[in-house]
Amino acid sequence: xxxxxxxxxxxxxxxxxxxxxxxxxxxxxxxxxxxxxxxxxxxxxxxxxxxxxxxxxxxxxxxxxxxxxxxxxxxxxxxxxxxxxxxxxxxxxxxxxxxxxxxxxxxxxxxxxxxxxxxxxxxxxxxxxxxxxxxxxxxxxxxxxxxxxxxxxxxxxxxxxxxxxxxxxxxxxxxxxxxxxxxxxxxxxxxxxxxxxxxxxxxxxxxxxxxxxxxxxxxxxxxxxxxxxxxxxxxxxxxxxxxxxxxxxxxxxx
Length: 254
Fold this sequence. Notes:
This protein is α/β, with parallel strands linked by helices. It has one domain: Spore Coat Polysaccharide Biosynthesis Protein SpsA, Chain A, CATH 3.90.550. Helices cover 28% and strands 20% of the residues. The strands form 3 sheets. The protein has a 7-stranded mixed sheet with strand order 5-4-1-6-10-7-11. A two-stranded antiparallel ribbon has the order 2-3. The chain has a two-stranded antiparallel sheet with strand order 8-9. The mean pLDDT is 94.
């Protein structure tokens, strides 16, 4: 197995999960699939890293999350949920002296597999990219963001489904939400994000385009299973993720 060095992860996990409407007074990431909290499933797929190399971004009912996962991990507080970019901004004090690879994945996306995450990090380091995006194809997810490329096939930008032109809507390559960054370049770019969008939030998805425009290399890594992209926003999402997990367990894949 190839060596992977100098990697840390950030896992935004601060949300309340209002759309779940589960009736349980829990942070979103403590809702369960296959009797295990979503965030536990995510952290299991990051077990090629040590707990002290992982920063969990907490917010709503942070005490419950910290109590469950213990003090082996680092925690950053996102008091107000102002977007994915804002969540990563809250980690900056913990990364000031770090010069390496930062993997960002999310606490409500339990289906990514460890070999995909690890291989993506390896690809990022081999190519010496400023940023690497995990992508996949899944025709059942028409509302996912698309990867737009230039005429030479290089990454250009991420376009949300609602903003796609009819031509862009036909793009099959979807953005997973998972990214690797050169730590220094990530935290240099974050202050340049703005909230000039419908949600009034800081979007981490704008950082790859910023880096590409500045002449840095932005790579992609294709996940071979489009089901990995599924996250949990609603009870229906939770049921679908649970069904995928059960199928993988039955096949001995987990």
